[in-house]
Amino acid sequence: MVIINGVQGDTAQLIPDDGFQFGLGVFETILIGNRPLFLAEHLVRLENSLRLLGIRNGVEAGQVLSLIEENKLRNIVLKIIVTEKNILFMTRKNQYTEEVYQRGFHLCVSKMLRDENSVSVYIKSISRVDAVLEKQRAAEMGYDESLFLNRKGFLTETGNSNLFFVKNQKIYTPAIECGLLNGIVRAWVIKNFDVSEGDFSLADLYDAQEVFLTNSVFGLMKITQIEEKTFACHRQTEEILNKYKKFISF
């Protein structure tokens, strides 16, 4: 399903603006089960990002809920894209099967560096050239995602998910100031578990016993390999995932 400015079908048209021409716009990706998960949090972040970019446009909760009910959307992923003159709603299947969760993700480390001083790393900007190119490069080498460091050499995130690691039963995640998105599931993990935020290096990551990612579609995903380093232990990751599954089932 694709709805552009309230119109679905071949007659739908984008209005040329700075989003269309220069990538000035933001998006949110929402998992819909029997209900849209974290809808309020997604829309608050969307509004804050739009204000940061000076875009006078937006989406309200009632608008999203009406769209979901009118189109009977269930067990699907909804993407909302907003620019100065355009609002797009798009749906796709959730590609993360039980087989994917059982296997876990394999990561490589990107040679591209995140600029922690750039506004774009803190919002879900529609201009995502680095993330797309690095995901393509990772796939070509047999990996699922590419992990970014910042210009100071500290860990940040992958192109679409936040990073956590477990060392000696303690949970760690890079601080927002390292140059990463304040993910919604990331915030849920920090709220419900004792998590230390800070500046961490690749050496810290390789010294961990467990590594996992979070995002709004797959929730939590264990990492079984980062380049040549393998991770066989996932006990705490599974505990966090089980609690998350119970939370979203309400």
Domain unit count: 2
Largest sheet: 9 strands, mixed
Could you estimate the helical fraction of the residues in percent? Answer: 25-40%
Task: Give the SSE string.
Answer: EEHEHHEEHEHEEEEHEHEEEH
The average pLDDT is 96
Structural class: alpha+beta
Any idea what the CATH superfamily of the largest domain is called? D-amino Acid Aminotransferase, subunit A, domain 2
Radius of gyration computed on alpha carbons: 18 Å
CATH class descriptor name of the largest domain: Alpha Beta
**DSSP helical segment count:** 8
Number of strands: 14
Give the termini distance in whole angstroms. 26 Å
Task: Pick out the low-confidence regions.
Answer: none
Which CATH-level-2 architecture of the largest domain? Answer: Alpha-Beta Barrel
Estimate the global geometry from the Cα principal axes.
Answer: globular
Strand content: 25-35%
Examine the coordinates and then state which fold CATH places here, giving the name of the CATH topology of the largest domain. Answer: D-amino Acid Aminotransferase, Chain A, domain 2
